[in-house]
Amino acid sequence: MRHPIQDYLRSLHDSLRDSNEGELAQYIPTLATADPDRLGIALATVTGHLYSAGDDETEFTIQSVSKPFGYAAALMDRGRAEVDARVALNPSGEAFNELSLEAESHRPDNAMINAGAIAVHQLLVGPDARPQERIDRLVSLLSALAGRPLRVDQESYEAELATADRNLSLGHMMRSHGIIQDRAEDVVAGYIAQCSVLVTARDLALMGACLAAGGLHPLTGERVIAARVARQVLSVMSSSGMYDDAGQWLVDVGIPAKSGVAGGVLGALPGQVGIGVFSPRLDAHGSSLRGVRVCRRMSEDLNLHIMEADALGGTVVRHVSREGASVRLHLQGVIRFGGADAVVSALADLGTGERRQRGWSWDGDEHPDVAACTAVGRGALEDAVAAGEEDGAIEEVVLNLERVDRVTEVGRRLMAEGVHRLEADGVRVRIDDPDGVLAEV
Ligand SMILES: NC(=O)CC[C@H](N)C(=O)O
Questions:
Q1: Atom in ligand 1 nearest the alpha carbon of residue 96
Q2: What confidence score (pLDDT) does residue 389 get?
Q3: I want to staple 335 with a disulfide (CB 3.0 to 4.6 A). Which of 65, 180, 287, 411 is the partner?
Q4: What's the rounded Cα separation, in Å, for the pair 46 and 272?
């Protein structure tokens, strides 16, 4: 069977192939001579499925798409306090290479603009690291994310270094304020090396999927980025990743993203997918014109907007079964706050045996479609409670976690509290947790 997502990417590629709007970046000589017609599109799911079309294996320099990962590495190497002390967390509303710092702290506005990324590069590894160690750190993180060894393209590196006046002036300005400590020339050279790493659209999709998965690699399941760090990086990407287009982008596309001046765009939709696009012609913001179009289309066609939310909590109670005085709650999926509320509400119903008015009616035949538990779970819970009235009180409740993938900290605390209170009401509670998901919290 040919996968429908593969076909979708191919048709998306075909529909945009002939568009030739936008301009190549001129200020870096190797970019000015790139083949402008290339178009590569890739999508990776957090569960490790990778699809791609067009020039998906063509290598190009990562440029600013390296910034989220430099930021991730610095946060892991130095901790949040040290990084926040030198790089702020607000959108700049300016172009990526603007010569500006925050008024009082003299910090760059965020890690997605050049000033921020240069300050971040200084933070890599540790205060006394040699320039090469910082470059190696980033190349190895990017390689781990791509799942293959990546390298710096020497020609691009030298070409950009030869024309790096603007970035050097940012470096000198930040050094004069103590934001960076090494020689500005060294930090900027390191930053340019990080920008010159060669990647493909497929690499970017995998890197995005890893961020989207909270830092777990979609192919290996290995933790490559700490969960808190992935969260911070995605947050800053969503507010600042598309520079002065970030607000419009969030409304129209709604996928945290980062673009690079060589034509790469990386998108990362938390919990779902990573997107990688390569097309060298740029729009007025310095982002790939067709790359932006691809993301817009995907967001629309695949409903990938981050603000498009489901009432997920309700799907946690999958089924309820009763045998004599014992009731079994079959739970499933990921139990966060909303899911734990559904479980505790079910426990409360079972504990008192009362028909509670909780958004749906126990009595009528009609059950309004509220998301308190799945349709199956809801009906069965009603039956279990109703049976309680005929067959006598419920003496035991079993929470079956066999199908639960993960429980968040608040999910665990809220469910523990519910169990505790149900026991205080005189009901025995047993927890069936064969995979120990509760212990993993
Ligand atoms: N937006 C970008 O991709 C800019 C990266 C490029 N290396 C620069 O510093 O100018």
A1: 1
A2: 59
A3: 411
A4: 6
Confidence of residue 255 (pLDDT cuts 50, 70, 90): very high
Higher per-residue confidence, 388 vs 314? 314
Instruction: Report the pLDDT value the prediction gives residue 360, as an integer from 0 to 100.
Output: 35
Q: Ligand 1 center to residue 164 CA distance, Å?
A: 10
Closest CA to 173 of 244, 97, 74: 97
Percentages helix, strand, coil for the chain, rounded to the nearest 5? 45, 15, 40
> How much is the CA Rg of the chain, to the nearest whole Å?
26
Specify the long-range contacts of residues 300-303, CB closer than 8 Å, at least 24 apart. Answer: 301/8, 301/12, 302/8
Confidence label for 366 from pLDDT (cuts 50, 70 and 90)? very low
- Asked if residue 206 lies in contact with residue 50, where contact means CB atoms within 8 angstroms, the answer is yes
Q: How far apart are CA 149 and CA 145, in angstroms?
A: 10
| End-to-end Cα distance, the chain | 39
- The answer to whether residues 327 and 398 touch, using CB atoms and an 8 Å cutoff, is yes
């067959």: which residue's tokens? 391
* CA 97 to ligand 1: nearest atom: 10
Average pLDDT on 258-266 reads 97
Residues paired with 276 in a beta bridge:
42, 266
Q: Whose CA is nearest to atom 6 of ligand 1?
A: 63
Ligand 1 centroid – CA 219 distance (Å): 29
- 370 confidence band (pLDDT: 50, 70, 90): very low
> Is the ipTM reported for this complex over the cut 0.85?
yes
**Integer angstrom CA distances of residue 214 from 4, 139, 217, 221, 242:** 26, 20, 9, 11, 21
